[in-house]
Amino acid sequence: MTGDLENNLVMFIYRADEEVENVIFIPPIGWEKFLEYKMERLLNTNLWYITCKIKNDLRFDYTISVNDSLIDSDEGWEAREVNLTHDELNKNFLILCEEDGEEKKVSYVVMPKAQEHFWVKERINISKGDIEEYYFHSEKLEKDRRIRIYTPYGYKKSNMPYKFLILTDGDEYLNILSGKTVLDNLICDKKIAPIVVLFIDSTDTRYEELCCSDGFVDLIINELTPWFRENYNISSEAKDGIIGGLSLGGLTATYLGLRHSDIFGNVLSQSGAYWYKPEDFKEVESACWMSTEFNKIERLPLKFYLNVGILEPKDNMIGVNKKLRDVLELKGYEVKYEEFNSGHDYLCWGETLANGLISLIGDNN
After folding, report:
1. What is the rounded end-to-end Cα distance, in angstroms, of the chain?
2. Burial of 60 from C-beta contacts in 10 A (0-12 / 13-18 / 19+)
3. Among 148, 133, 254, 165, which Cα is nearest to 199's?
4. What integer pLDDT is reported at residue 47 of this predicted model?
5. Residues in contact with 84: Cβ distance below 8 Å, sequence separation at least 6, in sequence order
6. What is the domain class of 130-361 according to CATH?
7. What is the model's pLDDT at position 208?
8. DSSP letter string over 205-223?
9. Most CB atoms within 10 A, among 144, 189, 247, 254?
10. Fold of 7-110
11. Do the Cβ atoms of 209 and 216 come closer than 8 Å?
């Protein structure tokens, strides 16, 4: 675009295999105005297209709705999400695993001036840690849960106890977000000291577990962490412990910090879902329940890393993250807050995992 240094025009094309009535391009923003993104048919061909003005430093994913009902309601969106498809003409896509085990492709775009990712890129000639896999038996779970443990290169039980990190959504952190590569690179570059990490998988009970479930908290505190300490050489000091997660996992990490700062002295929240409110929370709709919980107690021995994407919903994601940040800072907490150039997706959470770890336990801290 002549004279516009911040935006580019991007054309998206959909090729229909059969006769269709309409095609909707669905970007990560503007869902409430999705009808403005109807694609146009190119003459009498099977090609549909739309041209969008997009900031040239973004990463974002998108989907396509074919033969859309054009109904803008909760019921309409529930039906629509079942039939959303990826862009077969775009070679860039993520493969996600649905709750039913089916794989799902999600198309994405990296704009030309997007910041290059560094920490998620695997390096060949560096020392690397190991991953061990277990199926953890819990008295509270109906079936054993897969967990994986990262130990850094040179790990020894005879060394000084290591700092430790527990992450929910473990499979996503390892297989989509390149979590092991991030750790190897950070340790190689001496950005953080060698650390031991426990990745716990989520299942089809994810929503119930990660909405501040006291049962899930009890599993982490009274079963998983003691097992972790018994089997690995990790510190018993809260200042060396980090609890982290993404989306609802970020919410739960913060809740665990609130309830158990004696175990975890650091909270790493990526796009934390602070829109969550328990049923008995009677404040106004725009209130942030988590910030009110921290506001009514004395400051705890906690440090925070919070981030959120600039393409995420303005009120129930960016707004509530800022409310929590502001309350924490007013209470005297050390908070690193970051906004990244993407949405509520997997395109930046791997790279910003590194930012969070450097902020919380970097060698300069």
Report:
1. 44
2. buried
3. 148
4. 96
5. 26, 63, 64, 65
6. alpha beta
7. 95
8. THHHHHTT-HHHHHHIIII
9. 254
10. Immunoglobulin-like (2.60.40)
11. yes
Exposed e or buried b per residue across 92-112, where buried means at least 16 C-beta atoms within 10 angstroms of its C-beta: eeeebeeeeeeeeebbbbbbe
Q: Which residue ranges of the chain lie beneath pLDDT 50? A: none
Domain positions in the chain = 7-110, 130-361
The pTM for the full model equals 0.94
Tokens 């981030």 -> residue = 307
Rounded alpha-carbon distances, angstroms, from residue 215 to 70, 98, 209, 212: 41, 24, 8, 9
User: 320-326: long-range contacts (C-beta < 8 A, 24 or more apart)?
Assistant: 320/274, 320/275, 320/288, 320/290, 320/291, 321/271, 321/272, 321/274, 323/274, 323/288, 323/291, 324/254, 324/272, 324/274, 324/288, 324/290, 324/291, 324/294, 326/291
pLDDT of 32: 67
